[in-house]
Amino acid sequence: MEKMKLLAQWTYTPKPIHRGYTKEVCLVDLGNRDGKYRFETKTLSDEFVERFTGGRGFGLGLLWEAVNENTKWDDPENEIIISGGPLCGITQYPGAGKCYSVFLSPATKQTYASNAGGYFGPLIKFSGFDSFELRGIADRNVIIFVDGDQGKVEIYESPFSPKDNSYTITDELHDYFSAEDEDRENGKRAISVVSTGQAAAHSYICGMNFSFYDLRRKVARLKQAGRGGGGTVLRHKGVHALVVKKRKVTGVENDPADLATLQQVGIKLHKEIHDYDDVQCKMRKVGTAHLNEVMNDYHLLPVNNYKFGQHPDINNIHSDVYTSLFTQGLPDGCWYGCSLSCAKAADNFELKTGPWKGKKVTVDGPEYETAASLGSVIGIFDPKWTIEANFYADHYGFDTISLGTILAFLAECYELGLINKDHTGGLELTFGNKDAMMEMIHRMAEGTDEFAVAASRGIRYLKDFLSEKYGADRKVMEDIGMEGQGLEVSQYRCQESIAQWGGYFLTLKGPQHDEAWLIFMDMVNKQLPTFEDKAEALYYFPNFRLWFSLVGLCKLPWNDIEPADNHIRYKGIEAAKVPEHVQNYVDIFNAVTGKNITKEDIITQSEKVYNFERVFNLRMGKGTREWHNIPARGLGPVFEDEYMARPDYFDDKLREAGIDPQGLSVKEKIEKLQAHRRAQWEKLVDAVYKRRGWNKNGIPTLETVKRLGIDTPEVVEVLKKHLRPEDEWDN
Amino acid sequence: MKLLKTYAEKCVRCGACMAACAKAYFKEEDPELSRIRVSDVGNMPNLNVCNQCGACIEVCPTQALERDKNGVVQLRKDKCTSCMMCVGYCPTASMFFNAKKQSQPFKCIACGLCAKACPTGALEIIG
């Protein structure tokens, strides 16, 4: 690569980390397409740190200050803020390299927070910054480089074309910025690149790829902050890549207060993973794709746009098949010290289509979500097709989850006759049509075909587009389009799990599995038997899981490995909490920060940010009950073939609801089941809002924000605009 | 392959090996700093020391563990990120650590100082 043209350069003195924090922010403002680049460091107050803890909390706190209620995702005021959190970058405990990206989302038009592994979060922190804050829109395409060794921030004119994609950009920048390192391989591993692909120029569903350099494979790997459209925002700002470089990681950069405890707790978990992973989740061999057959067994695998939960071809995508496709025996952690090693990859994979046809590549994943999204949900049970689609989705910048759910929606629209070949540019977009689906992915990335561009903007956009442009039936699309708040549903068929209705559709940011993945507890482990358990779970788990996003941890080592006696010592919802691991988190938080928190404080730290984000969305014109929509397909069967796939099961469900199915037509049965479940949904919404300290309209009450200490004048002002007496609870 | 072979039946649990090891590498005679550990198991001596099997090499994310020309597994401290995965994955629990002294783990490198210090011939460098 030729020498890049330097457009701006600043120096700074990296602030050392003390007990997990630098309390410094790196702000890069790209101006308003006028080339007025600006850099500054900001210091966070102790009060800010106390209120937001770190990571996603810092991102939300900074974004709140940057935008107003009229700011749109494509305004220069919108920001991308990437923050690790106080535990981010420790090496002694598995899964501690995570960071969170916060921005106003093009998909949901409200706040989004998306997490990623890779080395960017830790290295930007070791370069002196708890948060990297990107503002403005550049006058041209640029590369932003933070040199943590030299204390420099530089902006270069991007040498890449708008059609260059993530693997190209990432590889070349790892190469470019390690050119002066004597030990080139270790130079490359001191770098992390954040990029996206060409689809981000028009799509609303593009994520950001965060890299780390794999010393054994000698390639840069990509981990995704996939959801919510962060990549779309990045490209819109004219940023082809963010790059950080920081050499020499010793494992004590965070200046922990008690290294001995950190080591002991970490080693305990390493041993647990060593002893039990092979008999529990097999994360080290197959990553999250171990779930494929389990989901199928319990009718939770999404098949053909979530119509069905099982498929006879499940053995084609069995975890054993993926195990054989992934290279085994490598330490596949996406940060140092992650012995869970779930970042699996298929090596020497020869691409059969697209611009890189014939090229052999290393493909990151697929993880379970992609095995299902670019697989079962679109009726495809061919792992090699899925791996190829996974590669191109990452390369182009697509969030694989939204991509698959969109394609599934389109396939059903096609099979229902709502759209036809005249609309799809000649593609026969039926379930299982591999060639048509792959071609559609390439077209969605290319951005020249009107239909494909509309598809790349998500289901909510498509519902408007298809009804207005082609007269497609709006009601049917509302029933089958698996989205909430403008975000496509991730890959669990939730209709038989009341807890997961809430886990998906009573969320801050739309139906993802980051916030409350309760389906396994509910349907497989049967840990939430009562309605009260489910409502309690929808209070506890979203708050508990949010804590990972505050401190810089991955969720997986919490319950994708468990102490052998967890299910003996604890029952029900307590077992689902994995109390011994919760204590680990208390211990390592205290060991790093020198504080003295309890397990109850974990929930309080999270609840502050959870409610703050809810108020933030209220400020942006969302955040009320009407935005917690759930499609009919999320609740139960919509069409007769779905009901008739399990007629006895659904008849029993009607009887449990006090409805005699005898003499009813299938259509009538579906109507009654839907009506019953819709009533249950409303009951669930009430119960959950109440438990969360929100009013009937889903708004945190003044008492709640006071209890949490987030009742700043700005928060109270937003609430007072929206809180109405008629929305208060009766008792 | 060079390694330290142990003969537990000859061990009298005097601790001379641990003292020699700790003194050589940490300048203190604290058994907690030794790369060989002698303990009682059922009133019998148990000698725990690296057998140079190399399982740790596979799990190290930074390739900080490697065999030298003698086949001895060496930890390159400059490459180590103190993640402790090698400690958790050592089949014989022979990778040791002590946060007061250093963030990185430490292990037997078959130097033979302990064997020289042993009064009963319970330790021997072979290979």
From TrEMBL, chain A:
All copies of domain Aldehyde ferredoxin oxidoreductase N-terminal, residue ranges: 21-248
Pfam families noted in UniProt: AFOR_C, AFOR_N
Source taxon at top rank: Bacteria
Enzyme Commission number, as recorded: 1.2.7.5
Gene Ontology MF term list: 4 iron, 4 sulfur cluster binding; aldehyde ferredoxin oxidoreductase activity; electron transfer activity; metal ion binding
Alphabetical UniProt keywords: 4Fe-4S, Iron, Iron-sulfur, Metal-binding, Oxidoreductase
Coiled coil residues, start to end: none
Keyword 4Fe-4S assigned: yes
Gene3D superfamilies the UniProt entry points to: Aldehyde Ferredoxin Oxidoreductase Protein, subunit A, domain 2, Aldehyde Ferredoxin Oxidoreductase Protein, subunit A, domain 3, Aldehyde ferredoxin oxidoreductase, N-terminal domain
InterPro entries recorded: Ald_Fedxn_OxRdtase_dom2, Ald_Fedxn_OxRdtase_dom3, Ald_Fedxn_OxRdtase_N, Ald_Fedxn_OxRdtase_N_sf, OxRdtase_Ald_Fedxn_C, Tungsten_al_ferr_oxy-like_C, W-dependent_AOR
Keyword Iron-sulfur among record annotations: yes
Cofactor(s) the protein requires to work: tungstopterin; [4Fe-4S] cluster
UniProt family annotation: Belongs to the AOR/FOR family.
Protein name: Aldehyde ferredoxin oxidoreductase
Species of provenance: Thermanaerovibrio acidaminovorans (strain ATCC 49978 / DSM 6589 / Su883)
UniProtKB/TrEMBL annotation, chain B:
A Pfam short name: Fer4_7
Domain 4Fe-4S ferredoxin-type: 2-31, 41-70, 71-98, 99-127
Protein name: 4Fe-4S ferredoxin iron-sulfur binding domain protein
PANTHER family: DIMETHYLSULFOXIDE REDUCTASE CHAIN B, OXIDOREDUCTASE
Domain of life according to the entry: Bacteria
GO molecular function, one term: metal ion binding
InterPro entries linked to this entry: 4Fe4S_Fe-S-bd, 4Fe4S_Fe_S_CS, RnfB_subfamily
Annotated organism of origin: Thermanaerovibrio acidaminovorans (strain ATCC 49978 / DSM 6589 / Su883)
Keywords: 4Fe-4S, Electron transport, Iron, Iron-sulfur, Metal-binding, Transport
This protein's record includes keyword Iron-sulfur: yes
4Fe-4S among keywords: yes
